[in-house]
Amino acid sequence: MSVKEKLQELISEAKEKISLVQSVHELNDVKAKYLGKKGSFQEIMKLMKDLPNEERPMFGKLTNEAKQVITNYLIDQKQLIEDAKVNEQLRSETIDVTLPGRSFEVGKKHLLTQIKEELEDLFIGMGYSVMEGPEIEIDEYNFEKLNLPKNHPARDMQDTFYITEETLLRTHTSPVQVRTMLDNKEKGPIKIVCPGKVFRRDDDDATHSHQFMQFEGLVVDETTSMADLKGTLLVAARKLFGDKREIRLRPSYFPFTEPSVEVDVSCHNCNGKGCNICKGTGWIEVLGAGVVNNNVLEASGYDSTKYQAFAFGMGVERIAMLKYGINDIRSFYTNDIRFNKQFK
Ligand code: DAH
C-alpha cells in the first residue's frame, strides 16, 4: 500500500471515529490517538527514514495535509458537541410563560389583632397614645393601687392565677393605668389606651377563656367628666358596630371607678327592636367604665382635688363575637385555619 493510500485510510477511519464522539473529553482521547506523541502519525513518520531522499518532501507534504484534515474534523466535531450542549440547555431551561403561576396563600391578621388595631387607630386619631404593660404583674398594681386591697370582696370578680403571693398573671389591663400614672413624673394629663392579654382562672367553655384580650382607656385631666366619657364611647361604639348605634349607661360597680357604669350599645342586628342576639332587649352590654375613683388617683400620686379621670375597659373577644356572630370564644385560640381565614 502506498503512503498516500495509507493516509487516505487513516483519514477515513479518523473521520468515522470522530463523528461518533459525543463529548469533548472523549474527543481529546481521539485527538491523542491520531495526533498525540504516541499517535498514528508518529508511527507513519517512522516510515520516512526508509524513503529515498527525493520522495521525502512529498511524503512530508501529504502527512501534513492529512493531519490538517483530521484536525479540522476534530474542530468541527467539537463545535457540534458544544452546540448540542447549548441547545440542550436552552431546551431544558425554557419557561412556558403562558403557564398559570403557582398561587400561594397570603397570611391575614388574626381577627383580634384586626379589631385591636382598628380601635388603636380610632383612639390615636383622638389624641391617645397606645401603652402596653407586662402580663406578669404585681398584686399591688393589679389590685391594691386600683382600690382593691387584700381581702376586698370584689377580688372574687377576677379569679386569679397567682405565681407567688405578690406576683400574678394580670387579670385585666387596668394595672397599665397605674403604671402610666406612676411613671408620669409631672403628674400631668394622660390620654392612653392599653390593649393586651389578660388571664383568669376560669374553666374554658363557650363564653369563658382563661386567656382573653382587653382594651382599656384612661383620660386624666383637670376637667374630664362623665359627658366626655359618654361621647368618647359613643364614637367607639359607632366605629365598631355602625353609624346608627346609640349607647346607654347603666349604674354599676367597679372598685376603681366612682360612679361606675355598664355600657350598652343598641343592637346592630335588629336596630334596637329586639332579637335573639340582644335577647329581646334591643341593647347589648359591651363594656365597663366610670369616673376614676379618687383613691386610685391618689395611690399613683395624683392630686384628686385637681384632677379628674375617666376610664373604660372592654373585652375584645366579646366585641368580635357580637359583631360576627361567633358563638364560641375558644375559636379565637384553637387556631383552626378555616376560622381565621374568614376575617379579611
Ligand atoms: N377592669 C375591668 C374588668 O376587667 C374593666 C373595666 C371597668 C376597666 C371599668 C376600667 C373601668 O378601666 O373603668 O372587668
List key phrases describing it.
344 residues; alpha+beta; BirA Bifunctional Protein, domain 2; 2 domains; 7-stranded mixed beta sheet; two-stranded antiparallel ribbon; 9 strands; binds 3,4-dihydroxyphenylalanine
Describe this structure in words.
By secondary structure, this protein is α+β, with helices and mostly antiparallel strands. It has two domains: 3-92; 111-340, 2-Layer Sandwich (BirA Bifunctional Protein, domain 2). Helices cover 41% and strands 19% of the residues. It has twelve helices and nine strands. The protein has helices at 3-20, 24-35, 40-46, 56-92, 111-125, 139-142, 175-183, 226-241, 294-299, 316-324, 331-334, 337-340, and strands at 129-130, 136-138, 167-169, 190-199, 211-221, 247-254, 257-266, 283-292, 308-315. The strands form two sheets. The chain has a seven-stranded mixed beta sheet, with helices on both faces. Strand 6 and strand 7 (257-266) form a beta hairpin. Helix 1 (3-20) runs parallel beside helix 4 (56-92) and helix 2 runs antiparallel to helix 4. It starts with a helix and ends with a helix. The model has no long low-confidence stretch (mean pLDDT 93). The chain binds 3,4-dihydroxyphenylalanine. 3,4-dihydroxyphenylalanine (DAH) is lined by residues 172, 174, 216, 254, 256-257, 288-290, 311-313.
